[in-house]
Amino acid sequence: MYAASSGQTYCVPCKNTWWRMQPNSEGTGCVFDPLTWVVVPVMLLLSTALFTTLPLLLSLAVKIQDVRREEGGVVITTRCTHFLLRSTHGIRAVFCGTGHPLLDGADKRRAYRVQVRSETELLLISAKSREPIGSEIDSSMGSVQFNRFDGLMKRGLLGIPFVCWAVLLLMGMCGVRSVILLTGAGAGGAQLTALEMLQVIFGLLFAILIHLLNHHRHASGVLDKNLHIFSEELFKKNPHPQPCARGHARAISARQMLDFFQAFQEYIGSSRNMYYVCSNILLPLTKSYKLSYAELAGPKTLEWFCSHFWGTPFAHFVETVTKHAQVVAEELNIQDFAAATYWICTFSNNQWRVAEEVGASWEASSFYYALRSGFCRGTAMILDEDIKPLTRSWCLFELLQTTLLSQEQEQRGESTFKGLLLCTPTGVMNYGQGNIELAVNISKKLATLRLQDASASVQADKDMIDRLVCEQAGGFSEESQQVFDPSRKQRVASHEQALSKRFDPIAGQLDQPNHTRATNPIVVNAARWYDGHIRHDGAALAGRRVRDEQRWQQPQQQPQQQPQQQPQPFIVMH
User: Fold this and answer.
1) pLDDT of residue 515 exceeding 80
2) What pLDDT sits at residue 573?
3) Is residue 106 pLDDT above 60, yes or no?
4) In terms of CB atoms within 10 Å, which end of the chain has fewer, N or C?
């Protein structure tokens, strides 16, 4: 307030629309109020913080960077800070777009909670038992949204919920107004000037800008960026992807498979399987064209049909197919083993049109078209110790068609179709390659395998294949003997030959007189261990083969267990 002239009986307030004013020292005019330099930046800071905090109260979805099974349970890594506060009982969460059936779906809304491990990591726990989830869950996409109430009270910063931060910021802005009022100076007292109102608006704009930049920064994960780079590489090699007929024309080469694996090995690792590869990599890669991966990368004509279980680790699959390609190249004296081509359902089928690929009947399926195309040289079954492919209905269908094809060629006197090849990362078991212990384990599994227990993701597919087995193979028991009786004997015999070929030269050297060997106690005990274990195992393997043949010829009789000779212990003499 000031008096405009000497002797004036009333005072006039200092008015200015844009900034605060105060009376001069004589009280005869108004000058700029230095309080403005305090009020303006404080209002800008408080309003920016307030408007930045408000969206966090809404518990908006948080993008997922990765979901994987670790030693302590399933760990979820978010692309940005999730701002969850630590809670003993966890926070209710809903997942969307992860591509995993155990996470996605409206019926799972009350199934899961999450506990904080770090500012970007969460541990998935059961909503009922509060125990960590032990299922194999893998994903690198989607989002997680927290329960509204939990998000309101259990999301915050520095241990303080955001709702409390919002209240504190509002109180701060009100405190600024109170300070202005208590000073009793300035234009309009506690009223905000235009400049101060602009700071509130600027705070809102800054908060919007912060959220937009944060969204842009985390909109694409590391995998998304690598998918984009790999897509550009595919486009350079095949600039005009076109659909082609289902069946033999949609194979990929071993080199294309290896390029794919090397590009995404960081995310696939050693444990993730085809389910992860299809949902997180193949579908995003082919989304623009809605084609199969083979059509996108440049399709090849098939030479080998791959029969495999989607739950097998993809690294194991790649290693096994690569080994098969090397074996075939060596057999045919081909220098470039990676030129071998394979029909692999995950890569050869259009995953955007699965119903069309499966067909209305088994004769209309892409699997049947590929096997019966006349281009297929054989079926490479990708095995692990649990022989999981033989527990899946579609693999059973492929096995049946392979058997029928082999019989038809045998009747015609042809030998172009190699039949069923049992493949492992260490070689083709039909050729006596691979780990001997693995062969024995697989044989034990086959002895108790019930093909009628094979399952499928879709029950209708299992029912169709079960009917086909009954129609074309006379039922499961006959089909089992028809498929496994000859191949099983051949596999055991081939491994016995491989065992002899590998260790007989060593046995000959050990049997020769050698002064050093005779006087060296370590070598003496090594020879004794060889006689007790290696030769013993060879004899046991041969005996097992004879007993297996007898059991297949007379399945109703139980083989008598022969007492095994105990090998001599390995004793190092000092």
Assistant:
1) no
2) 35
3) no
4) C
What are the CA-CA distances from residue 23 to residues 12, 30, 517 (Å)? 10, 4, 112
| pTM beyond 0.90, yes or no | no
Element (H, E) at 522: helix 521-529
Three-state SS letters, 272-292:
CEHHHHHHHHHHHHHCCCCCC
Cβ burial of 203 (10 Å; 0-12, 13-18, 19+) is buried
DSSP per-residue letters across 115-139 = EESSSSEEEEEETTT-PBP-S---B
Strands 304-307 and 341-343: parallel
Which contacts of 532-536 are long-range, i.e. CB under 8 A and separated by 24 or more positions? 532/567, 532/568, 533/567, 534/503, 534/507, 535/503, 535/507, 536/564, 536/565, 536/567
Weakest-pLDDT range from 204-208, 284-288, 436-440: 436-440
Phi, psi of 16 (to 5 degrees): -155, 130
The single residue listed with the structure tokens 């009350």 is 110
Beta carbons of 440 and 494 less than 8 angstroms apart: no
- Cβ atoms within 10 Å, residue 454: 22
Higher-pLDDT residue of 430, 109: 430
Distance CA 85, CA 272 (A): 31
Instruction: Give whichever of 7-16, 292-301, 469-478 has the largest mean pLDDT.
Output: 292-301
Q: What is the pLDDT of residue 381?
A: 92
The closest alpha carbon to 352, from 441, 286, 401, 411, belongs to: 286
Among candidate residues 122, 117, 119, 161, the one with its CA nearest the CA of residue 144 = 122
* String of DSSP letters for 424-468: ETTEEGGGT-S-HHHHHHHHHHHHT--GGG-B-SSHHHHHHHHHH
Give the residue ranges of DSSP H helices in 126-280: 148-154, 162-183, 194-219, 222-237, 254-268, 274-277
Nearest Cα residue to 52 out of 192, 210, 185: 210
Rg (CA), the chain: 36
Predicted confidence band of residue 375 (pLDDT cuts 50, 70, 90): very high
Backbone dihedral angles phi then psi of residue 144, each to the nearest 5 degrees: -125, 135
| 318-356 pLDDT, tens digit each | 999 999 999 999 988 999 999 999 999 999 999 999 999
Q: In whole angstroms, what is the distance from residue 163 CA to residue 151 CA?
A: 10
DSSP state letter for 3? -
Measured distance between the N- and C-terminal CA atoms of the chain, rounded to whole angstroms: 108
Bridge partner list, 116: 122
Q: Mind listing the pLDDT tens digit for each residue in 126-160?
A: 888 889 998 889 999 999 999 888 888 889 999 89
**Element containing residue 537 per DSSP (H, E):** helix 535-553
What's the whole-number mean pLDDT along residues 370-378?
93
